Amino acid sequence: MQDVCAKQVYLFGTCLVDVFFPQAGMDALALIEQAGVRVHFPDAQSCCGQPAYTSGYPDEARRVAWSQIRLFPNDWPIIVLSGSCAGMMKHHYPKLFERGTTQWAAAQDVSRRVVELTDYLVNDLDIQLNDLGPAIKVALHTACSARREMETLQCGLALLDRLRHVQLMNHEREAECCGFGGTFSIKHPAISAAMVADKVQALLDCGAQQLVSADCGCLLNINGALAHRGEALQGEHIISFVRRRCEGGV
Amino acid sequence: MRTAAQPTATGLEAAQPVVVTQSPFKERAQAALCDRSLRQSFRGAMDFLTAKRAGVFDDPAEWQALSQLGEHIRQRALSKLPDLLEQLEHRCQQNGIHVHWAESTEQANQVVHGILAQHQATQVVKGKSMVSEEMALNHYLAERGVACLESDMGEYIVQLAGETPSHIIMPAIHKSKAQIAALFAEHLPGVPYTEDVDALIQIGRQVLRQKFLDAEVGISGVNFAVAETGTLCLVENEGNGRMCTTVPKVHIAVMGIEKVVEKLIDVAPLYSLLTRSATGQIVSTYLNLINGPRRPGELDGPQEVHLVLLDNGRSQAFADTQLRATLQCIRCGACMNHCPVYARIGGHAYGTVYPGPIGQIISPHLLGLQATPALPGASSLCGACGDVCPVKIPIPALLTRLRTEAARPANEQPHAMRGQGANANLRERQLWRWWRWLNTSPIAYRLLTWLLSRARHHLPKQLKPWTQVRTLPRPAPKTLHELMRQRTGRTS
Amino acid sequence: MSAKANILQALRQGLANAPGPLGDSDYQAAIAPYAFTHADAVTRVKQLLCAAHAEVIDSTHDTWPADLTRVLQQTGMPATLLAPQTDCTLALRAYWADRHDVPSLRLFDQAIDCWKADLFQIDAALTECEGAIAATGSLIIWPTPQAPRTLSLVPPLHIVLWQTRSVWNTLFEAMQQAEWASRLPTNALLVSGPSKTADIQQTLAYGAHGPKRLIVLAIDEPCP
Predict the structure, then answer these.
(1) How many domains are contained in chain A?
(2) Membrane-crossing residues (chain B) (predicted)?
(3) What is the pTM of this model?
(4) Nearest CA to CA, how far is C190 from chain B (Å)?
(5) Residue of chain B nearest A41, judged by CA positions
(6) pLDDT digits over A55-102, tens only?
(7) Angle at CA B199, nearest 5°, toward B198 and B202?
(8) What is the maximal distance between C-alpha atoms in chain B?
(9) pLDDT(B19) > 70
(10) Chains that touch B (3 or more CB pairs under 8 A)
(11) Can you give the pLDDT at residue B8?
(12) Which of B196, B251, B433, C125 could form a disulfide with B302 if both were Cys (CB 3.0 to 4.6 A apart)?
């Protein structure tokens, strides 16, 4: 468990947030600092290494993982903006290194300190949210690996539950994969397309005005499919939505 | 090819031999995705089975404890596998069961055919057995003039249609009742078209009852074989398994070498996990514990029982401490019932006897990675399969490992699998090397992401196959790295 | 080398790079959720059997022949009832001796090979059972030389006499407490309803290949 009184944390943005959802990183920073915690963003961070790892290139993943592990020398929690990347760092980093080596020990240490963002906000900071926005119907999507490896579904739900005017909309087969799966969506485009088509239809059918998720790979996939269909609905990182609500935005 | 007289029509007299499709996985998947009726069949069945399973595992604490026990029992058995197999053989022989060993499906087929030839048997009934599918036993026997009739209703339907099972528990899951009605009306003399399921089942019952009576030999699979007692356990609902193993004079059981458990009491928790995971039943109609042929003084049961132990690539999986978990499987099919890929492409698209996630991790051992190069990658690694596995096989981790084995150069040591390097591709390897360099070189990484953000309006609009159903995402005007640097007052 | 030697050698080589054999299992999970009193266990067996489409008739040691006869009369009398050579059969035979509206009683008293085709024409069969399992509503049937295994399989109607004093909470406890491992018959069986299938579009249909109907006479007092 994390030290609740920890006053300093690391922020790991993830590569997709870096390029596609940078505002989510800034919003996370703002919300954590509002709670009186100092945030460190190691400038040399890049990707967690998951794409190579799941594609069958563990050697490349190991090199990238090692370059990231060294960025977090102090014993502070490492807050990760995406559940699936957090899962990689927490559950797979130690597996990449030979047991008993210094690298393995360092990977273990990082693994112990990794916390997914919504988990941190809800369970460590117990963040209180003052929802200034109008009533809105929201659907939540949780990445499969985040749901299963990090159990962040409950954290996402808990976070939304702290926004008074937000009504959670359940969509059909909420637990089913959106079809992203990293390189799966590129290697098996037809199957992935069928999966995202069903996910998008379920989201549209549930009557949500807004889609949120803490997982940017899924968001790129689902948003891309929504846009391709010409739908107005678009998903955003849950942290950006939460911060906007607290500042009175729609 | 049949030489035997056929006292009753089974409808199979003109059946085509099973056509093993040669088209690659992607083509079959594509075809399945376009087949509305097929997709409805699978989606409906998967939703049904998923809900049924959830209903019988409604206590998470019990599920957790029981699946942990199941995992331990299977791992314990595997940790002593060679000794347990020898003990099983010894106990079976004490019980009067003849035990045969086969390294390959060819050897196993020869053993079975040899027994049939000894008895001059031309009519055989078979209970559901995936190992016999693995052996393509029906085909092998048909070529040698022996009619081997499937007696499980689903298997019978599939055989009648000249197809292969699309699911390991519900073989005809891909067919609607209208399709089955048409199949019966077309192939069975005097049978009118009816979509009444009770009527269809009674038709099947009548045809097959005569065959149980006539057959000289019955063939079955084995769900669990108990080393302690030399017991062959069969789990079923229909009673055809009991018919095949009780009524004919000879019973031949075929099983993979991994199916052995150490003690009789191990069967109790595994049986509960199996039926609940497979079809959401707290128990099947029958659990049949076979301990040998008819003993002196007994009035029925087979006079001869044979057990064929098949390796067929299992010892390869066994030799690797990680891949060994593949052999924990108790063949419940829950992984396919919960797989979003299987639900959309169905069982036949995989092109292997075992479809779905379990097929994706076992088939590369049975056939070699060179014959199954697409299987390890055909998963989004969503983890649903691993979640519902009653013996906790880490299926996603095994898929990842198989991807690694398929991507490694064929000559690299150590060599864990037949077909290593099936997907080895210099271009892809270079790409990942470049990716690694980029992500371990902070300046290069920041430069590239900066370039992406600045070129956001000039990036290509099309990037197939991604953009066939999706709009390409556009990078934000500034990267998070930039925003952070601005905030801390530094410049890049 | 033989296939056996090759397989065992491959497996033993495979074992070399793994930790040693695993120790015993804690089987608590197989038992824990299913602790019932005797009365609850009996009730549960009846409920689960009924839910599985079996018919359960409450009866007693003295009245079961009459109860059985009444049920057969109510539900379409089979022409022949096949039975083993046991005390129960004698009791039924005595009860039916001077009655007309009863099936003819045929004993299973010769090897199946002599009359297999006839066996497939018989409408109903009677067996006893070793007991029942409360967790799953299953009957334990251990065929003996006096009670062959096809009795509970081939005729479309299967009638089982169950002494309700004989009930275990779980299969695990039945196996362990009754020491199955040291005394298994050639074919031990659990039966949890009439045969069924859902192989056509998940639609449940009864009477697949085994019995179409299962009638259980639950005998609530011990046999003398």
Answers:
(1) 2
(2) none
(3) 0.95
(4) 5
(5) B484
(6) 999 999 999 999 999 999 999 999 999 999 999 999 999 999 999 999
(7) 85
(8) 95
(9) no
(10) A, C
(11) 52
(12) B251
pLDDT, residue B18, reads 38
Exposure of B296 by Cβ count < 10 A (0-12 exposed, 13-18 middle, 19+ buried)? exposed
Contact flag A195-B344 (C-beta cutoff 8 Å): yes
pLDDT tens digits, A46-66: 999 999 999 999 999 999 999
What CATH number does the domain containing C91 carry?
3.40.50.10420
Structure tokens at B63: 């599920």
* Spans of all domains in chain B: 19-56+333-423, 78-316, 426-488
Q: Are residues A23 and A117 in the same domain?
A: yes
Let me know if residue C118 belongs to a domain: yes
Of the candidates C176, C197, C209, the beta carbon closest to that of B243 is on C209
Residues in chain B with CB shorter than 8 Å from the CB of A144 are: 380-384
CB B152 within 8 A of CB B238: yes
Tell me how far apart the alpha carbons of residues A114 and A120 are, in angstroms, rounded to a whole number: 10
Cis peptide before B465 (omega within 30 of 0): yes
- In this structure, the answer to whether residues A201 and A144 fall within a common structural domain is yes
pLDDT for A1? 45
pLDDT score for B196: 97
**B193 backbone dihedrals φ, ψ, rounded to 5°:** -70, 120
Asked whether the beta carbons of C195 and C208 are under 8 A apart, the reply is yes
Instruction: Provide, as residue numbers in chain B, all residues whose Cβ is less than 8 Å from the Cβ of A60.
Output: 432-433, 435-436
Q: Under an 8 A CB cutoff, do A64 and B384 touch?
A: no
C196-197 and C205-206 as β-strands: parallel, antiparallel, unpaired? Answer: antiparallel
Residue A97 and residue A162 in one domain: no
Q: CA-to-CA distance for B153 and B387, rounded, in angstroms?
A: 30
**Mean per-residue pLDDT of chain A:** 95
Whole-number Å distance between alpha carbons of A189 and A179: 9
| Whether A66 and A36 share a structural domain | yes
Q: How far apart are CA C181 and CA A41, in angstroms?
A: 64
The whole-number pLDDT of residue B12 equals: 56
Strand pairing of C187-191 and C138-141?
antiparallel
- SS3 labels along C98-165: CCCCCCEEEECCCCHHHCHHHHCCCCEEEEECCEEECCCCEEEECCECCECHHHHCCCCEEEEEEECC
Decide: C and A in contact? Rule: 3+ Cβ pairs under 8 Å.
no
Cα distances (angstroms) measured from residue C116 to each of A249, B120, B125, B222, B388 = 82, 20, 16, 26, 44
Domain boundary (A88, A123, A158) is at A123
| Ranges assigned E (strand) in B291-340 | 304-310
Final residue of a domain: which of A107, A123, A139? A123
**pLDDT, tens only, B197-223:** 999 999 999 999 999 999 999 999 999
Q: Any idea which of A4-8, A12-16, B381-385 has the lowest mean pLDDT?
A: A4-8
Q: Is residue C109 part of a domain?
A: yes
CA distance B294 to B286: 20
B260 and B227 Cβ atoms separated by less than 8 Å = yes
CB contacts, 8 Å: A186 with chain B: 465-466
**Has residue A5 got a pLDDT over 70?**
no
Domain that holds residue A208: 128-246
Phi, psi values for residue B63, rounded to 5°: -55, -45
Distance CA B77, CA B99 (A): 19
Assess whether A62 and A170 both reside in one domain: no
Same domain for A132 and A107, yes or no, is: no
CATH number at residue A172: 3.40.50.11810
Exposure string over B346-356, b if 16+ CB within 10 A, otherwise e = bbbbbbbbbbb
- Looking at 3.40.50.620, 3.60.15.10, 3.20.20.80, 3.40.50.10420, the CATH number of the domain B78-316 comes to 3.40.50.10420
